[in-house]
Amino acid sequence: MAAGVDCGDGLRARQYVFLLPEGHLHFATPMDPLFLILHYLMKTEKEGKFQPLDQVVVDDTFPNCTLLLKLPELEKLLGHVTEEKEIDSKKYYKYSKEKTLKWLEKKVNQTIVALKTNKINVGARVQSAAFFPGDQASSDKEEDYIRYAHGLISDYIPKELSDDLSKHLKLPEPSASLPNPPSKKIKLSDEPVEAKEDYTKFNTKDLKTEKKNSKMTAAQKALAKVDKSGMKSIDSFFGAKNKKKI
């Protein structure tokens, strides 16, 4: 079961709600299918030859990826990211980085327009998207909008292509004074973490003494420093020998 939910801004804000058999709800929004096909086209880039699309969009892990080939107007869309040849009424395609970067640049510009239209603050100090009055949003620099839009588009493309797009947009390197957001693609090491200091060097006896002394009052600490050599313990005055017989 599926139903469309219009969020108030036409197709751009439309969401589709799917009721799954186990009772869960799945929310989906429309996206450009080229982002999905782009992954398979880039995999064939090293071969450097034209190939039929049914030989490009192949995935043993996701065999249903072939459903992408049934999308309407797919051939027209492919012209944005590929070079095309037709031999014996059959079309062959080859990935084009130059065309892809121009297509992604248009996506960035469209995203910038949407950000400005919805008055979303994208300043360098903003760590997440938030809605602010128009006078605050107008203070953002054009570079901030480009960088923010580039980051949104980068969520759908490989890291290498994201870097190429950044150069294509002539984005300067981020200022060292500004904190960089945490990377979503951090590679975790399987190697065990070793301690930088040898904690076995600490003397546990000293630690206990220090802990004990920390609970003493100033008078007790002063008394502890007195030389007690030759002095009798106070307990000796109350020993068994000093008790009076009744």
Structural commentary:
With 246 residues, the protein is of the alpha+beta class. It is elongated and about 115 Å long. The protein contains 9 helices and 7 strands. The longest helix is centred in the middle third of the chain and has 21 residues, at 97-117. Strands 1-2-3 form a 3-stranded antiparallel beta sheet, with no helix packed on it. Strands 4-5 form a two-stranded antiparallel sheet. It has a two-stranded antiparallel sheet with strand order 6-7.
Enumerate the spans where pLDDT stays under 50 for 5 or more consecutive residues.
1-13, 125-138
* First-last Cα distance: 102 Å
Secondary-structure element order, as H and E?
A: EEEHHHEEHEEHHHHH
Count up the helices.
9
Determine the mean pLDDT.
Answer: 74
Query: What about the largest sheet?
Result: 3 strands, antiparallel
Helix content: 25-40%
Molecular shape: elongated
Strand order of the biggest β-sheet:
1-2-3
Beta-strand content: 5-15%
* Category by helix and strand content: alpha+beta
How many β-strand runs?
7
Radius of gyration over all CA atoms, rounded: 35 Å
